[in-house]
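queue> pop job 88
queue> type: inverse folding (structure -> sequence)
queue> payload:
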């Protein structure tokens, strides 16, 4: 059967889509390869969040096509993902060697379209329409059942976004919000656990919006918290994560869940985007700086050692020096473990692209470089503070940077590298942190009974803790502040 190379750009949603596509192709007898050279089919799963990501994918496809024309034969070339959805036929007009353009709601049809092209039943395919029920079609997993068993897995629980942030193209590429049923998701998670998965990450464009319309609030709990509780009840599952949420989705029910559900790890990604209220309003984010800080305070009251990350944009249209400084002071105040810092990029068909006072690129670059240095210094200090602690990790497999060593992830989402072997894969292990690098910890396994007693990190907590009563006013102070 034909060989297929798949390259993925962008977010975890794209990674999950690529895995599902790959699983369907393997089930049909296709062979996956790790290079486009000599492949019969080359598929690029694309991202449209920033212009750079689109240009990178376009450049890659042009290079693949050019090389293939010289060497022959030209493989079947296809675009998937958000850029495929937004540009459609335009991609084939721009790159005539491209045979296949599949939108975000149609990826589960890719294997059938590819069969038709290879069999000569059709020449070109552009399939970017809407499809009811598509949110329930991304179920297949590639990394279970063959080779080293998967320890972690992404589970797509919904598609689409209703937020319409002024800088973002996602609502037009992913469509409006559509959620799966809780029963369907639990069934998928249970099947993964039966195959050896010990940690699942629940995925959605705005995951905290899960089931708002289809399921609603029950007994004071949002549909998303109801889902977490249902997944939490699966025997054999050790950990639950989720991404990517919206700060508006952090109600008290979700915050309290971090304290009472031990499988819900103490790790949260809260995209703030800016530290300035005027810019947050212009971005259509729906919260203020004060509200965002309040959420962080409440989370740290429930889990003092929670790992926190965020997204920030510098150079949004009209951003002044003083408004930029508010993003700087927010990072200094909240001291995130990790910040994904982005330079504002104009996206066609978004309101922000037409806003006045676009910030010059050289100003964006300077602001980005300065804030990145501040962010990295804070992160380094937070990682160094972990040296000497005991932490619980879930061993995922060989280190991605050094295959001779193994790595696991703490509950607060930090990678720990240690001397291990394949027998450790899938184990919950306690390690003592010996040193810290750039966004990586290095440790040694703790041998029971041979280590002196000492304070352990919250990452080794596995039981519920007392949850303080939460209220909009008078939130507890930030830990350490």
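queue> result:
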């Amino acid at each position: 059967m034909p060989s297929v190379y798949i390259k993925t750009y962008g977010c975890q949603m794209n990674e999950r889509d690529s895995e599902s596509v790959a699983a369907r192709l393997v089930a049909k007898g296709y062979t996956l390869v790790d290079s486009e050279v000599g492949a019969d089919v080359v598929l690029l799963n694309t991202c449209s969040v920033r212009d750079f990501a689109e240009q990178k994918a376009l450049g890659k496809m042009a290079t693949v096509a050019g090389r293939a024309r010289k060497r022959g034969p030209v493989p079947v070339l296809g675009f998937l993902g958000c850029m495929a959805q937004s540009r459609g036929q335009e991609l084939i007009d721009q790159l005539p060697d491209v045979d296949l353009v599949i939108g975000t709601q149609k990826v589960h049809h890719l294997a059938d379209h590819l069969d038709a092209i290879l069999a000569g039943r059709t020449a070109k395919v552009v399939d970017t329409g809407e499809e009811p029920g598509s949110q329930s079609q991304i179920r297949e997993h590639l990394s279970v059942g063959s080779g080293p068993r998967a320890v972690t897995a992404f589970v797509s629980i919904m598609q689409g976004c209703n937020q319409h942030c002024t800088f973002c193209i996602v609502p037009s590429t992913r469509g409006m919000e559509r959620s799966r049923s809780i029963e369907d998701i639990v069934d998928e998670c249970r099947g993964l656990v039966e195959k050896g998965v010990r940690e699942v990450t629940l995925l959605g464009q705005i995951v905290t919006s899960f089931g708002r319309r289809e399921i609603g609030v029950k007994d004071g709990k949002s549909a998303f918290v109801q889902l977490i509780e249902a997944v939490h009840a699966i025997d054999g599952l050790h950990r639950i994560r989720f991404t990517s949420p919206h700060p508006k989705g952090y109600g008290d029910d979700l915050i309290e869940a971090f304290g009472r559900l031990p499988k819900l790890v103490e790790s949260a990604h809260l995209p703030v985007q800016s530290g300035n209220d005027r810019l947050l309003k212009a971005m259509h984010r729906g919260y203020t700086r004060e509200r965002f800080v309040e959420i962080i305070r409440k989370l740290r009251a429930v889990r003092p050692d929670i790992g926190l990350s965020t997204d920030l944009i510098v150079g949004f249209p009209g951003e002044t020096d003083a408004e930029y400084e508010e993003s700087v002071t927010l990072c200094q105040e909240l001291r995130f473990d990790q910040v994904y810092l982005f330079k504002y990029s104009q996206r066609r068909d978004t309101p922000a692209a037409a806003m006045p006072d676009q910030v010059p690129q050289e100003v964006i670059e300077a602001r980005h470089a300065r804030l990145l240095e501040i962010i990295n210094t804070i992160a380094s200090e937070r990682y160094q503070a972990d040296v000497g602690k005991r932490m619980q990790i879930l061993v995922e497999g060989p280190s991605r940077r050094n295959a001779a060593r193994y790595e696991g992830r703490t509950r607060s989402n930090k990678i720990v590298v240690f001397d291990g072997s394949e027998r450790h894969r899938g184990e919950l292990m306690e390690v003592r942190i010996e040193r810290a690098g750039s966004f990586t910890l290095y440790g040694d396994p703790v041998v029971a009974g041979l280590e002196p007693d000492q304070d352990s990190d919250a990452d080794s907590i596995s039981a519920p803790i007392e949850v303080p009563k939460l209220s909009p006013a008078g939130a507890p102070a930030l830990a350490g502040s």
